[in-house]
TrEMBL record:
Keyword Nucleus belongs to the record: yes
GO CC annotations on file: nucleus
Keywords: Nucleus
Protein name as annotated: Nuclear receptor 2C2-associated protein
Annotated localization: Nucleus
Signal peptide: none
Major place of residence: nucleus
Top-level taxonomic group: Eukaryota
InterPro entries xref list: Galactose-bd-like_sf
Keyword RNA-binding: no
Family from the record: Belongs to the NR2C2AP family.
Length: 141
């Protein structure tokens, strides 16, 4: 299992103007500072990761574009064949509209096969979220 979710099947709620080449989900995992996932407008944008094996998650790293982050992120997870259950709420800080904010969250170690991150409250008036990097750290079981 990769540490960054790069080889995990993943889904996102939306992509700005459906332009997956420029703003698609793959850009959260490509380690480039030049690319990002940019959601379309709307409330409650989300990302899901389906891990190829069972993992124990301990940290979450999210790098937002300032002005396009989330005041509240809800983490949900489950084992294969189960329903998603809430793990925790995270509260990233939006530094300012011109900077990229990087947040590291300690997560209560949770064993799961699927992780969903819901961006509940965007700092952008239109509800857009911009993520340059998403990293999930832990260990495979």
């Amino acid at each position: 299992c990769p540490r960054d979710g790069g080889a995990c099947p993943r889904r996102v709620s939306s992509v700005l103007n459906r332009d997956v080449k420029q703003f698609g989900k793959k850009h959260m995992f490509d380690a480039s500072e030049e690319t990002c996932w940019n959601s379309d407008q709307g409330t409650c944008q989300w990302v899901t990761l389906d891990f190829p094996c069972t993992v124990k998650v301990s940290q979450l790293h999210i790098q937002f574009q300032g002005g396009f982050s989330s005041r509240l992120c809800t983490l949900e997870g489950c084992r294969a064949g189960e329903e998603l259950a809430k793990i925790s709420d995270l509260y990233p800080e939006d530094i300012n509209a011109m900077q990229i904010s990087f947040a590291v969250f300690q997560v209560e170690e949770t064993v799961l096969d699927k992780l969903k991150i819901t961006f509940e409250n965007s700092t952008d008036f239109f509800g857009r979220i911009v993520v340059y990097h998403l990293g999930v750290l832990g260990e495979r079981l």
